[in-house]
Design a protein that fits this description.
Largest sheet: 2 strands, antiparallel
Structural class: mainly alpha
Strand content: 5-15%
Strand order of the largest sheet: 1-2
Distance between the termini: 46 Å
Number of domains: 1
């Protein structure tokens, strides 16, 4: 995977992570957190899809690697909701 492919992957992960944050209604930071949320969301989304036996659709091929866009957004939304819940409960103490 070359530098250009890696940068494209980061941009797609950032968009997916930001969409997940918007859907959850909670933002935990800037674009670096959106990239991290997108990658973590991809892992969570693929795990959920495999456990439920759901197909992987709308995957983007970048440098021979598949990045699941839909599952990344779904996983990022779930991850952001969990983070928001944990932050709200810790602030309440």
């Amino acid at each position: 995977m070359g530098l250009l492919e890696f940068l494209v992957l980061l941009v797609i992960a950032a968009i997916c992570g930001r969409l997940g944050q918007v859907l959850a209604g909670y933002s935990s930071g800037g674009w670096l957190m959106a990239i991290l949320t997108g990658f973590i969301g991809a892992y969570i989304g693929i795990f959920i899809a495999r456990e439920l036996g759901l197909p992987e659709f709308l995957s983007v091929q970048i440098g021979g690697q598949a990045f699941p866009v839909i599952w990344s957004v779904i996983g990022a939304t779930i991850f952001t909701l969990v983070i928001a819940l944990l932050r709200r409960t810790s602030r309440g103490r």
